[in-house]
Amino acid sequence: MSISPSSTPYPIGTPGTPWAAAERAAWLARQPLQRVYAEEVVAPLKALAAGLPAQAELFQYGTLDYTRLGLASYPLWAVRSRAWRADHPVVLVTGGVHGYETSGVQGALLWLEHEFGRHAQGLNLLVLPCISPWGYETINRWNPDALDPNRQFKPASPAAESALAMACVAANCTRVDLHVDLHETTDTDNSEFGPAKAARDGVAFDWHAIPDGFYLVGDTERPAPDFQRALIEAVRPVTHIAEADEHGCLIGEPLQQAGVINYPKRALGLCGGMTAARLVTTTEVYPDSPTASPAQCNQAQAATVTAAIAYLQRV
Questions:
Q1: Which residues form the Peptidase M14 domain (predicted)?
Q2: Is residue 10 part of a domain?
Q3: Any idea what the CATH number is for the domain that residue 268 is in?
Q4: In a domain, 128, yes or no
Q5: pLDDT of 74 higher than 60
Q6: What is the per-residue DSSP string for 8-40?
Q7: CB 65: neighbour CB atoms within 10 A?
Q8: How many domains are contained in the chain?
Q9: Which parts of the chain fold into alpha helices (H)?
């Protein structure tokens, strides 16, 4: 289903030469606003909090301020269990680390709407549904500084999106037992974001076919194969699971089991590596599949969170 690699150079920069400030500014100038965070994310969150006043606490955990670049500032919102108890397991759900991955955000909102209330009494829940609102508005993988927030979850992070999310989790959770990070893999990873990254870094583009279907990324240090398997089986009725390529890989990584690969999350600075949760997974939905609707993509994200909680509660 993926587009073929192209020999056409990326329109910004000189092949083989990393970008400097001028190239980053030229890239930023090409990023128009395409949707409205306040309408599509913040308004539903406020409606949710109003509808679940006894269970849900909506709070602002920071402000993403890009006025230095002539852009907007964005209030960052999270939802937590109002009745937070030290003896309850802690569940962290993150979405929109890559703002262009729509179902990561909308799937989190769907789960909040339909599932948060029934889980909030027995669990401590913390949900950050849209970590990168500028990326959401511009349908972008990077932030305005041409940094990928999902490589910046590390000390002294240069990405405000990552730093503020980590600070929020640290301020609210003395521990995390389960972390589900909601993502997508899209055809634009090959048509735009991969080539842009290669141009930015002055290297050749490392092309991989985009898997057609849902898959998960476990943690190399905490693989939890039974956990990952339970989530794959929960999603099967919602949307199809990605098959390995002819090399037994998904996006260049060896398949560990049906629909599952592993990454070293901490070493790569991934969102899924920011806590010591014993159960951690990253979803990868494929919204460009001809057999998966946007509603299915959102439902797959929500189904993963619900199945992850069910697994946590029985082990």
A1: 33-315
A2: no
A3: 3.40.630.10
A4: yes
A5: yes
A6: SPPSSS-TTS---HHHHHHHHHT----S-HIII
A7: 12
A8: 1
A9: 21-29, 37, 43-51, 102-119, 133-138, 160-172, 188, 194-201, 225-235, 265-268, 294-314
The per-residue pLDDT for 2 is 47
Q: Hey, which residues does 280 pair with through a beta bridge?
A: 179
Residue-number span of the structural domain to which 181 is assigned: 21-314
**262 and 218 Cβ atoms separated by less than 8 Å:** yes
pLDDT tens for residues 227-253?
A: 999 999 999 999 999 999 999 999 999
pLDDT per position as a tens digit, 175-230:
999 999 999 999 999 999 999 999 999 999 988 999 999 999 999 999 999 999 99
Go through 201-210 and write b for each residue having 16 or more CB atoms within 10 A of its CB, e for each that does not: eeeebebbbb
Within a domain: residue 62?
Answer: yes
Q: What are the φ/ψ torsions at residue 69 (nearest 5 degrees)?
A: -105, 10
pLDDT tens-digit series, residues 258-274: 999 999 999 999 999 99
Strand 73-81 and strand 124-128: the pairing is: antiparallel
Give the amino acid at 187.
D
Q: What tens digit of pLDDT does each residue of 41-51 get?
A: 999 999 999 99
Q: Answer yes or no: is 199 within a domain.
A: yes
Buried b (16+ CB within 10 A) or exposed e, 67-101: eeeebeebebbbbbbbebeeebbbbbbbbbbbbbb
Checking 83-89 for CB contacts under 8 A at 24+ apart, the result is 83/55, 83/120, 83/121, 84/124, 85/124, 86/174, 88/122, 88/123, 88/124, 89/123, 89/124, 89/177, 89/178, 89/312, 89/313
Q: What is the mean pLDDT of residues 140-161?
A: 98
How far apart, in Å, do the first and last CA atoms of the chain sit?
38
